[in-house]
Amino acid sequence: MAPAPGSGARVVVTPLAGFEAAPHTHLGVSRVVYRAGSGPAVVIMHEIPGITPQVAAFARRVAGAGFSVWMPELFGETGARGTVWRTVREVARACVAREFATFALGKTSPITDWLRLLCREAHAACGGPGVGALGMCLTGNFALALMVDSTVVAPVLSQPSLPFTLSPAHARDLAVSAGDLAVIKARDCPVLGLRFHGDPMCPGARFRRLEEELGRRFEGIELPRSSGNPAGNPIPHSVLTNDLIDAEGEPTRAALDRVLSFFAERLLVSTEERA
Questions:
Q1: What are phi and psi of 146, to 5 degrees?
Q2: Is the pLDDT of residue 199 over 90?
Q3: In order of start, what are the domains of the chain with their CATH numbers?
C-alpha cells in the first residue's frame, strides 16, 4: 500500500509486469511511478482500490499505442485484485485524507499540485506537444484540474466521481475551484469524458455542467447501462477497466478506441498540426 504523504514512511516499489518503477519526489512527497512504453507521455491516475490487473492492462494498452505511460501509485496495493473489501477500505481512507477533497464543493484536490509537477517532469523527459492525463473514478476530475498547466493538452475524465454525490449541488460540481475553472475555460483545449448512464457515482448532471462550462470543447461519451460487462459491477461504472467488454462492436471497446485516438490526435502530431 502507498505510504501516507508526508508520513516519512519508506516508499515500497512493487514489481508490476511490463513496467519499470521508481520513486519520484515532488513537494517533499515521494511516490512510486510505474512507467512503460515510449513516445509522448500520458499520466494515468488509477481508480479505487488501486493499480489492479485491469488498470495495468489498460495502461499497457496505452503504452502499446505509442505513448510513454507514467502511472503514479496514489493508494491501494499495486497488482492486487479489486475486491469489495479493498474498495470499501480505500474509499474510507480517501474520505478522511486531506489530499482528496471527496465531499467539498468548488475545491481542487490538493494532490493535483503533486500530479501537475509530475506532468511537467514527464513532458520534459518525453517531449512532444504536451502530455495526456487520464483519471478514473476518484481521480477522474484530476485530469480536469491538471488543465491549469498548459503542459496538459489531452485530458480524459473517465467516470469522474468527485465530489461524492450528497446533494444536487454535489452532482453538478466539477471538483475544481472557481479560479482553476476560469483558467481551464480560457484554454482552447478539448476534454474527453466517459460514463455509463445510471451511474450514481458519476451522475449525468456532472456531464451537463461540463457541457455548460466548456461548450463544444467537451466531448462526452455516455454509454447505455446494458453495455457494461456482465462480469463486472451490477451497476456498471468503470468504462475502461472492470466493465469493459474488449470486443469489436461493443460500446465500451469503442470508448476505449476513442480514448486512444484522442491521445493520438493531441500528442502524436506537431503543435501546428494539432491547432
A1: -70, -15
A2: yes
A3: 20-269 (3.40.50.1820)
